[in-house]
Design brief:
2 domains; 0% strand
């Protein structure tokens, strides 16, 4: 049973770490995270439905803390799901290179992001006849596409040192569990 996005967004007010998993990876990653979030909410509140769990959590600070603590215990598994999905995408790109092919889709997304960033920047910087609403909208688009470029660079070159350390920790903990 798919958990509605509105329910997961509502649960994220009690465990904000959920937001980093929404809209990432293949559909199965957000769906699995949603299932865990809903299951923990029902378990903590003793209710049968996610809607009832949200209602109970909204009125009870003690249960909110319990939910947050329980969700923190599941964060490693959710990170593993996300990292597994990212690893598959990188492996796909590696296979393109090995086969001597060019990943036109990835290259075109990168070029398109840069074109949008440059055009939006020029529009905001040089166009004096735009009203404030249009400038704000274009600035919002500019920020979004700068975020896309950030994701592209993180995908291609790896992410920050602290993120790499987290990845190494997850890998070592996973290896402990296999022994």
């Amino acid at each position: 049973m798919a958990i509605p996005l509105a329910a997961i967004t509502a649960l994220a007010q009690f465990a904000p770490m959920l937001l980093k998993y929404l809209g990432v990876g293949k559909n199965s990653v957000p769906d699995k995270v949603a299932e865990v979030a809903a299951s923990v909410a029902r378990e903590v509140t003793g209710t049968e439905s996610v809607t009832d769990a949200i209602a109970v959590l909204t009125g009870n600070t003690q249960l909110q803390w319990e939910y947050k603590i329980q969700m923190a215990g599941h964060e490693q598994r959710m990170d593993e799901l996300y990292l597994q999905d990212t690893k598959d995408a990188r492996a796909r790109d590696t296979e393109f290179v090995r086969a001597g092919m060019i990943n036109w889709r990835a290259h075109s997304m990168y070029i398109m992001a840069w074109v949008v960033v440059v055009v939006a920047f020029v529009m905001v910087w040089h166009s004096q006849e735009l009203d404030d609403f249009v400038k704000a909208t274009v600035s919002l688009i500019l920020g979004r596409f700068l975020g896309y470029l950030d994701q592209i660079y993180n995908f291609e070159f790896g992410s920050t040192k602290s993120s790499r350390q987290k990845d190494d920790t997850i890998a070592s903990l996973s290896n402990l569990g296999e022994r």
